[in-house]
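Task: encode each sequence below as structure tokens.

Item 1
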Amino acid sequence: MNKKVDILIVGAGPAGVVCAVTAKKYYPSKHIMVMKNIAEGVIPCGIPYMFASLHNPDENKLGMASLEKHNIEIVVDTAVHIHRKEKTIETASQDNYSYEKLVLAIGSEPLILPIKGIDTQGVYPINKEMGYLKGVIRQVKNCKNVLVIGGGFIGVEFADELSKLKGINVTLVEMLPYLLANSFDPEFSQIAEARLKEKGVNILTNTRVDEIIGRDRVEKVRFNDGKEMPIDGIILGIGSKPNVKLAVDAGLELGFCKGILTDEYMRTSVDPDIFAIGDCSCKRDFYTRKAIPVMLASTATAEARIAGANLYQIKVIRENKGTIAIYSTYIDGLVLGSAGLTEKTAREEGFEIVVGNIDGVDKHPASLPGACKGKVKLIFSKQSGIILGGQVSCGMSCAQMINIIGIAIQKRMSCTELETLQIATHPYLTSAPTMYPIILAAQDVYGKI
């Protein structure tokens, strides 16, 4: 079959869906098609919660209702080759699609560490496919000793979720000195570790898995110190790498982070009619402009809106200035959020900084039911007073605070602007207006600048 479309989007994850809907709003007369390579996908951020929190794994299905509502065509097939000169896509079912504009939202694939025995049965990479994940869930629930490899936010969320399953002993192993090391400074990581230990999770830092041992399936693991542990199920929570084979075969250029290289408007560097968004595209840090391996749905959807609006003309003058790597995570009622540079990273990059710290409570008065002690840390440039990053921990109000910090970073706000921030407060929803943690953390650095 040969079919002509105006805008072809390969990939139906969050980036692909948002890009398609955005493009339809800006170019309503264009025929838009989204190609998905699996029949039933999942919401990536919700994958850990399919194991216990959700009543049914199907509740985490990634729906296509928004595409159907906007009359965007959906086809289930796999793109296997891009013919750039002819502007066509060849698929696994031997169909061909011609396009005017092509958007690659082909995502990422799980990292597989070079560990002896990694292909043993009972070792589970995290693929974003509903049928596969249902099988993993069934098998993990029959395990007694589960090991989660990787102490980043994916691994931490899996460890927290698995600890809710009765009869399962959960161990989390991380080769770095502390958990969440790429997004938080040690004092916040310690809070996360303490909460996981309260849940009964066994945490091993400064530890690496050297070998996975078993005949028909995994039976135990051997660590770098020679110690062994009985294990009958392993979750690989070590993250992903950009899925770029399709792009490389088409002669598209990769960046230093091994993602597809794009310009400020998500156009690929060698072909202005091909765009790349989401996990498959190269990410650059907001302040340093260095390539960074950040793969977040929030970043992907921001890129998707930039690309979708500017496929034919530059309609939205809001270029992609880089990622601030903003995200939050949840551990048994504890919420942690991070955006921008950590203190450790800022110092390593040579920034002269000052740091503001404040401890507080996320409700007022503090005696209200459910009130949670929290912490806010803000990093500023010493000379300019411009915010470079921030970290928070507390209860649910953490989500709004880290988004405030994220906006402040993108707008390059000063400590004075944050100190005079106008905010809405409510006893059950926020800290007291007289003791709002972001404002107090900004005031904490005022005399140091």
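Item 2
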Amino acid sequence: MSGNSTDSVLIVDDEPLVRESMAVYLSDSGYHVLLAEDGREGLRLFREKLPHLVICDLRMPAVDGLDLLKIVTSESPETPVIVVSGQGDMADVVTSLRLGACDYLFKPIVEMEVLEHAVRRALERGHLLRENLQYRQKLELANRELERSLDVLEEDQEAGRRIQLRMLPETPLQVDNFTFSHRIVPSLYLSGDFVDYFRLGEHRMGFYLADVSGHGASSAFITVFLKTLTTRIQRHYERRKAVSSLSPARILASINQELMAMALGKHLTMFCGVIDLQDNHLTYCVGAHFPPPILVTQDASGEQVRPLEGMGLPVGLFAEAKYEDIEMDMPERWTLVAMSDGVLEVMEGHLPEKEARLLELVQSGRRSVEDLSQELSISGNVEVPDDIAILVVERSE
């Protein structure tokens, strides 16, 4: 079987007859052969020519075969070395193999086919080692590039997180005898849940809790859009002296149209309300938000706790979606608690049990952002499977 003409073999042997006989046979077999008459010359040729295989005698003057073997396996572990010797000492065999020789042949080599078989097997091993080395180098390069990309991504995500946190309103915010407070717990760096509350003219406050489908940067982008839209609405009312009523249903319809036009493949559930601060009147709209917001009212007959009515369709999913305003005259004291469905992911039990547990928490008086976070075990920096948002609006006498 002929060798590969691109494969070079370095033969290092101080016996001219042995060296020449191996060279002639391997040359006839198609290999490119390099010759060295001692270890020192062999080492020079190895470093200059970088052969694919080294065949070296064990006993040579100046630099012997074991020294040459150590250097070759140290400088080029992927280059196979075949040791040949006429000593026949088993200790030399063991030492050579321990130092990295891939084969050991005894002189005289009577059957040159044995040599060729050893050469062919050693070269195959060398090719595999070189390929593995190239794959490893490529993998290490890819890993370094991936690490750099991850570092850049993490920096971008952290920058995005800081921007998103700055978009959130102050908490708690006191406006007349109303208190607005919130908490956002993202499952990743960026959150697809968002909360906002803002003045609409002199005597109205708008607020909403939105839960964008999915997680991460693409969902967080929609929260930027929501903030931009509500800021635009707020500035519109700041410029007007006479303020007409604002419909949460129209806000949801407008957001629905803009999301459909952008075709981002994102939709959201949303709870949006407007409070008339003078008349203590609430107008709200629900766009498929779940779990339903919980309203606590207090009057002469006592305290009542109930989920708010209204479901509606998701926002940004159906072009012809219709939304409905629900209006309520409120008592002197009331509290509204809204949460995203991420809270359900950190609770145990089936869905009806989770809904009942949320209602029970609010009924028991645990209705502040801090109390709810404590009861749901989401206080501090915690890992959660889904984004979580809590919004509490409270009116005191």
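Check on item 2: Residues 190 and 217 are 6 Å apart (CA to CA). The chain has ten helices and 16 strands.
End of task.
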